[in-house]
Amino acid sequence: MPWFPLDLNASLRVIDIVGTLAFSMSGALLGVRKRFDLFGVLVLGCVTAVGGGAIRDTLTGNTPPLFLRDETYLWVAILGSLAAFAFGIRLARFERAISLFDTLGLGLFAAAGALGALRLREVGITLGPLGVTFAGMLSGVGGGIVRDLLAHEVPEVLYRRDQLYATAAAGGALAVYLLHGHVPDLEAQLMGAGVVVLLRWLSRRGWVQLPVRRLPEG
Questions:
Q1: What is the pLDDT of residues 101-153, one digit of tens each?
Q2: How far is CA 131 from the centre of its chain?
Q3: What is the largest CA-CA distance in the chain?
Q4: Which one, out of 27, 50, 106, 196, has a CA that is 20 to 30 A from the CA of 44?
């Protein structure tokens, strides 16, 4: 009897939907903090939720992007954004919970992006470790980059050395690449997401950081 009650495709779909919900709420809450109107919050939440996957699908030739072929993801993003708009004041009090949503979405999307890149082998396209890692990383952080640019923020992936973000996503994607073929796809995706969560946790503790080069003033 399988350890998970759903079949592989259904399980991966559930994980993707959870990641979409998590990212949409994270993005929409930034819009609430910026005092965007309802439309602005919806745009920010949806872009965060589906933007990374859309960029990945476009790069790998899997067009139109998944969220246009299966509107379930877009509806989930809209509902998550509406929830953030309606309960934003209450949710903002739970900063750690919101950060957990963001980390969860990052891990699930990075792992799913890497798995999607690996599946290109089914159509005769084989990506190496760097290609799979880049596709997974972009799937995880692409929506957040677009979100920050729309909100007139410097993308976090460029300066938050104290909290690994893009690096954590790349680590999770690489883990999926290394595990692929050795364990079932579902387990590879969950383990890859776990690597992202672990790296983010270690960086928050100050145990893992990226170096910063500072030029002398004057």
A1: 778 878 888 988 898 888 888 777 788 999 999 989 988 888 888 888 888 88
A2: 17
A3: 68
A4: 196
* Cβ atoms of 143 and 27 closer than 8 Å: yes
Q: Which single residue is written with the structure tokens 């290394």?
A: 178
Task: Name the burial class of residue 83, with classes exposed (0-12), middle (13-18) and buried (19+) by CB atoms within 10 angstroms of its CB.
Answer: middle
38-59 helix and 72-92 helix, angle to the nearest 10 degrees = 130
* Domain ranges, ordered by start, for the chain: 8-204
Q: For 206, which DSSP code?
A: T
For residue 155, the SS3 value is: coil
The C-alpha angle 188, 130, 109, rounded to 5 degrees, equals: 45
- 162 φ, ψ (degrees, to nearest 5): -80, -15
The SS3 call for residue 180 is: strand
pTM of the shown model: 0.78
Distance from C-alpha of 6 to C-alpha of 101, rounded to nearest angstrom = 23
